Amino acid sequence: MLTPLHYRNYITVWPILFFLITLVSCGTINHRDNIIPIDSTPRHAKVFDEDKKFLGTTPFFYEINKERKQNFTFFENESKQEMKISYKCALNYSESLIPNLLISLLYPVGTTWGAISMAVDYWSGDLFTCAKGIEINIPNNLNNGPLKLSAKRILILPIESTDEKIASEIVALWKKNFFSIQTTDSIIPMAKANRSIITNGLSDKRLWAPREINRQDLWPLGHEFSATHLLSFEKKSEGEVTTYTPKLYDFFTLQEVQETYLKPLQINDTPENSLETLEIIKESVLQTIALIPNSISASLSFDRTILVADSSNQSVGIEGHRHPMAFPKFLSIWGAENMSHPYLYDSWDYNLQFSPAIALSAWEANLDYLTLQMQSAILGGKASINLHTPFGSLGMAIGMGYGYFYALGSDQEKFIFTEWPALVDIYYYKFLTSKLFFKFKVSSYGLDRKNPSIEWKGLRLDGWMEAGASLGHYFPTMKSTLRNLLPF
Predict the structure, then answer these.
(1) Confidence band (pLDDT; 50, 70, 90) for 53?
(2) What are the angstrom distances between the C-alpha of 218 and each of 215, 317, 371, 389, 400?
(3) Angular region, 125: left φ>0, alpha ψ -120 to 50, beta rest
(4) Domains of the chain (ranges, CATH numbers)
(5) Chain-wide mean pLDDT for the chain?
(6) Using the 8-state DSSP alphabet, how is residue 149 labeled?
(7) Beta partners for 356?
(8) Helices (H), 246-291
(9) 405: Cβ–Cβ under 8 A, 6 or more apart, which residues?
(10) Separation between Cα atoms, residue 440 and residue 430, nearest integer Å
(11) Is 392 left (phi over 0), alpha (psi -120 to 50) or beta?
């Protein structure tokens, strides 16, 4: 008779899981650049720190000291007015204070860790967050007419296109036709800016409208390139004509700005049914690159349930164990999948996506009369829905894959087969840095019950479930790099 799975003591297990989840929310792990904008009305005011060191002329981006209160002096040239202001970053409740306090409730280990984590956050400055910039109104009663405008430094956001080279050609054509060579404004070289734009997650389709971007995610770009304005192109297709309309935004206020060179560019598209074979192949290659997984992860599996059925045709859970040949020994699940950039989701939001997935799994189970060691490699696709919060993301995915399975019985009998298992995942993930993420996932693999691949003395293997905590690495520029390697 089958032995049911003896579940662990949840009073012990769930606090540990809660500890792991809240651990990744501490401020030091979720470090953000402490860049803020400094602006004034009117602009072109000179700004000095408390040591009378000149910092810049408004508006500009500045790297603030998070740990202490800082004093700034603004001097407006036209009115000769001088104003002082103090600035201090606010407490980081969502990523440091609240998570660390919750950890501290898990006595005694959590209490110790919470205190250490809070101290580390304070020492590193990440107990604070600089979510607001400095903006000051300087009284000016003089009627000296409008201030002379300074030259703009324009950073162009990516154009909506699967082909980055075509997007670059569109921008180059617009610059040639409309961006006057006599203007004092300048455009930051796209080749130089694109890598930083992609790394900061601003190439996602949802974010081609600057006002939809979290301002705090834009500030490091403005600081890196000393940019004053953002330029985006709105795309609209009508029949065989696509119109790209440029929109210019003030980098500091995200208010739209008008200029004479902001004229739409029209491109005649080639009808799809007349595309040459080479163009069809090119588009297929680009779409394939878009599906390539952009992250890898390795997991520690700590809870497995092997589903088997006896002559009564009812599935029963049997406790599984780590495969003795797992490599390395403490890891038992490897994976690769598509991840969305962490900067896209740092507030309440959701998204739907399709992602290819690669899963390598290994386990051992003691069945009646048989000890079974299973190794599997599954390549498939999943449709997922993700709910994003300031504390991480929750999601569920369903899909199917093609799997290769190798099982070895205790009597050295081998079971080698291929099959299309059903896949279901429920997971939580949180980015620790801009590239490193933590993920807790419960995965279910369902095998064909009508035509079972493994039957042994009246037992049938129906599938398995496993839970694991993983660390993964996200490669934000991988797809862009692959596209740039193409000869076309």
Answers:
(1) very high
(2) 5, 50, 56, 20, 38
(3) left
(4) 35-137 (no CATH), 153-269 (3.40.50), 289-481 (2.40.160.20)
(5) 77
(6) P
(7) 381
(8) 277-291
(9) 374, 375, 376, 415, 416, 417, 418, 419, 453
(10) 9
(11) left
Q: Which residues 6+ apart lie within 8 Å of 69 measured at CB?
A: 86, 87, 88
Q: Are 83 and 58 in contact (CB under 8 A)?
A: no
Who's near 402: CB < 8 A, 6+ residues apart?
378, 379, 380, 418, 419, 420
Cα distance between residue 219 and residue 227, in whole Å: 10
Q: Is 10 exposed, middle or buried (0-12, 13-18, 19+ CB in 10 A)?
A: exposed
pLDDT digits over 137-157, tens only?
887 654 444 444 578 999 988
Going by C-beta distance under 8 Å and a sequence separation of 6 or more, which residues neighbour residue 364?
320, 321, 322, 323, 324, 371, 372, 373, 374
Which two structure tokens, joined as six digits, stand for 79? 């009115």
- Whether 187 and 156 have beta carbons less than 8 Å apart is answered as yes
pTM: 0.61
H helices of 257-343, in order, are 277-291
Task: Return d(Cα 438, Cα 174) in angstroms, integer.
Answer: 43
Type of residue numbered 100: N
d(CA 106, CA 98): 14
Assigned token pair, 480: 């862009």
Q: Helices (DSSP H) in 79-206: which residue ranges?
A: 98-104, 109-124, 164-178, 190-199
Which of 89-103, 105-119, 217-231, 276-290 is predicted least confidently? Answer: 276-290
